[in-house]
UniProtKB/TrEMBL annotation:
Coiled coil: none annotated. Transmembrane segments: none annotated. One of its GO terms (molecular function) is fatty acyl-CoA hydrolase activity. The lineage of its organism: Archaea, Methanobacteriati, Methanobacteriota, Stenosarchaea group, Halobacteria. The keyword Secreted does not apply. Residues 8-120 form the HotDog ACOT-type domain. It is an enzyme of class 3 (hydrolase). PROSITE patterns: HOTDOG_ACOT (PS51770). It holds the Pfam family 4HBT. Gene3D superfamilies: Hotdog Thioesterase (3.10.129.10). This is Acyl-CoA thioesterase. It comes from Halobacterium litoreum. The keyword NAD does not apply.
């Protein structure tokens, strides 16, 4: 394991086409389906960062900002923005894209915490996070701003 890992080394983007099995009776994404996609994307970002298996420890306040309609593409983005000794904080955002219209809009946002595990399933140390570019520092700042805003809402 290296001592430092860049924020962008954890950056993960997934896409899902919203199909009927993941919709409610209004033809919109089920909240549980969106949370499932977010958890998977955040787990991948955590594992890329830690170089180990990671498990979900918590998910902060979730904001469902706008619905994802059937036939739209859900784009899920995640990246590590902070660490503890064995924990990893991940910012996750979802946007909807209409490929026919070329429109995009933010739909969902949350912060997740993961714990890195060693081969015996015990918590293990994670690398230090580094931001080597202004873009990385901007993403990190955005995540901390979201965390502070959520704390203010509590």
């Amino acid at each position: 394991m290296t001592d430092d890992v860049r924020l962008m080394d954890s950056y993960t983007e997934m896409t899902e086409l919203l199909l009927p099995n993941d919709t409610n009776n209004l033809g919109r994404a089920l909240g549980g389906a969106v949370l499932h996609w977010m958890d998977i994307c955040a787990a991948i970002a955590s594992m890329r960062f830690a170089g180990n298996q990671c498990v979900t420890a918590s998910m902060d306040h979730v904001d469902f900002i706008s619905p994802i309609e059937m036939g739209e593409v859900a784009v899920v983005e995640a990246y590590v923005f902070d660490t503890g000794s064995t924990s990893i904080d991940v910012k996750v955002d979802v946007r909807a894209e209409d490929p026919r219209e070329g429109t995009k809009r933010k739909t969902t946002s949350s912060l997740f915490t993961f714990v890195a595990l060693d081969d015996d399933g015990k918590p293990t140390d994670v690398p230090d996070l580094v931001c080597e570019s202004e873009a990385e520092e901007g993403l990190r700042t955005a995540a901390f701003d979201a965390k502070a805003e959520q704390a203010g809402d509590a």
